[in-house]
Design brief:
The complex is a heterodimer of chains A (468) and B (226).
Chain A (H helix, E strand, L loop, with lengths): L7 H10 L1 H23 L4 H17 L1 H15 L2 E5 L2 H14 L4 E4 L3 H5 L2 H7 L3 E4 L2 H8 L16 H12 L7 H18 L2 E4 L3 E3 L4 E6 L3 H7 L3 E7 L3 E2 L5 H13 L6 E5 L13 E7 L3 H6 L14 H5 L1 H6 L10 H16 L12 H5 L6 H14 L5 H15 L1 H15 L27 H14 L1
Parallel strand pairs in A: 1-10, 2-3, 2-4, 4-7, 5-8, 7-10
Antiparallel strand pairs in A: 5-6, 6-9
Helix pairs in contact in A: 2-12, 3-12, 16-18
Chain B lengths: L1 H14 L12 H11 L5 H14 L3 E5 L2 H15 L3 E4 L3 H11 L6 E4 L5 H10 L2 E5 L2 E3 L4 E4 L8 H4 L3 E7 L3 E2 L2 H7 L2 H4 L2 E4 L4 E2 L7 E2 L6 E7 L2
Helix pairs in contact in B: 4-5
Classes of the chains: A alpha/beta (468), B alpha/beta (226).
Chain lengths: 468, 226
Amino acid sequence: MELTPTKIKAYVKNALLDGNLKTAVDRATQTALTKRQDKVDHMPYWEDLRHAAHAAKREVMEHLDRYLEEFEKNCQKNGIQVHWAETAEEARAIIYQLIQDNNVKSIVKSKSLTTEELHLNHFLIERGIETLETDLGEYIVQLLDQIPSHLTAPALHLTRKDIARIFQEKLGVDYTEEPTELAAIARSQLRRKFLAADMGISGVNFAIADAGAVTIVENEANAALTISVPKIHVAVMGIEKLIPRLQDLSIFLRLLGPSATGQKASSYVHIVSGPSPASRKEGPEQVHVVILDNGRSKILADPQLRELLFCIRCGACLNVCPIYQQVGGHSYGWVYMGPIGATLIPSYLGTKAGKYAPYLSSLCGACFEICPVRINIPHHLVKLRNDIVNDGHSLLLERLGISVWAFLAKHPLFYRFATWFPGKLQQLLPKGKSFPGPGWSPNQRPLPAFDSRGFRKRLKELERKKAI
Amino acid sequence: MKSANNILARIRTATQIKSHLPVEKSEAEKNVLEGVKAAMPKDSVGLWQQFRTELEKVAGEFYEVKSNSDLAELLAQVIEKSNFNSLALDGNADALEIASRAAINLAALEIIDVTTLAAEERRERLSNANLALLSAPYAIADIGSIVLFPNEMTSVLAHLLPECVMIIIRQDQMVANLGELFAQVPAERAKSMLLVTGPSRTADIEKILILGAHGPKRLIVAMYKK
């Protein structure tokens, strides 16, 4: 199922009619938010953590070339093979070359939205390489041929009934809705695959420049098995995943757990700096890191929007966003969704393809308040809206409307008439009724009743009343 | 190489433009360190009590033991209560002694020493093992975590594949937090590290917490108190 941000309006319409989706999204987001608040309440230095994280990311972004070179050098010293990919196509080619060089037939993957961005799975499956998602949520979503609907809870939009049906259909198992049984089915199916896979592909949560290492954070142990069992481990990362020092993990891990899932700490934190020594009979013989640009350097070049690259993909902004809570992740039409997704869609895909995304927001600012790295998302959404208008991609109706209003604002007499007339027209309607809303649909709320007296008249009346 | 150079060149051009970003609080990191320090328990008893609290919050199990025979008794109890019939060991001499003691009264217990197994057989046998008796060099009190250094270990998979894992740590191996760990352990060692906090888990199905997603369902920590 190929989603595209140009169809956002249709997706949103469908999402609003889907009661099950709302229940599922509510449950997932509210749980995460409540648990997060509990952790934050016990960390009086939470705001300082956010500032420290912003400062560390800013330091890296402003000297990204130096940090990337340091990272590469240290990785290579550690025995990690480093590859650079300017585009998604190049990244896929690099990975495919490794597959061919090493006669890889089957791959297990742990959660990596970067690899979703690359459409890696389809590319490999088309070429006859078995590529299996192992994170439970991603495994389920892959069976449905969908993309994840949340940064950290991929199957958030599905109920146990949905999952029971998919498992019965695709895996041929007996129907069961019991979550522990469903998880057990996935565990046994995937355990066999882990033990037989030739290559494990993971994402990277934090790439550490001074240590020449990558950090992977997870709860299920699927990433643990992905990177520890197969002979080859490939870690895919955007250039923005860097942090300066190993000890900076103290700051970032304290922020990530509560923000992402409301946990104090995730179950597994892996710091990987190279293949396993030959003396051990376990662990990868080769570790590769693929460093990806794919439009990030362009975002870096914008002195304001470069802040978007600070994102640590926790998903907190999704959880707190009143829009996301109504429409869910698939409504955004791309691999990155929610408030951060709304900024990334036009930033990566251009203002034409991304012309709807920044408007999936009421600019309430909750995302900025909750962002562990203090990305001022509403500020960036406004700038992107400006860019969309300046590039000529705003809606015709909107441009017309603004032109009409601009004319009226420059001609006070016409303005007065325009504010007086609807109130008079309303008197022709039956008592208690008002005009239909902008959608002209009978199901939508009508406009509020107009007061034909207008602001100035009412103000005069109020002043008169006060004087009495 | 060409791609690397192109990317770096684009980055260099991009970063010549100064950021339009807010100025940050400069003492933020210092405040964090002070805040974390203020919340630290004052003595080693406090530390392991905090560890225990945090471990149990994430569904880990905690026992205090004073000797190898204590440990053997605990092991036997766990095995009997859960009806386990296979126990994996990673070559640690102490663990072998404890397991042998525990096994005296457990006729049906199969003991698997992974050091005797080739790679593929090791994976299969560990996958089928009910329980592994292992040890760890450090534990972190404020998050209830076990610290492992995979490159130094006989087997990391012994911590990941069995259904239940029992890890022995000594009281004097407890550190207060990750920052303290980084202060004690040189970067050369710390850059290849695995932090394990409780059993594996998922909430991907309707946000219902399920233990034992792909890794162990149970994590037991036996703390050796002097």
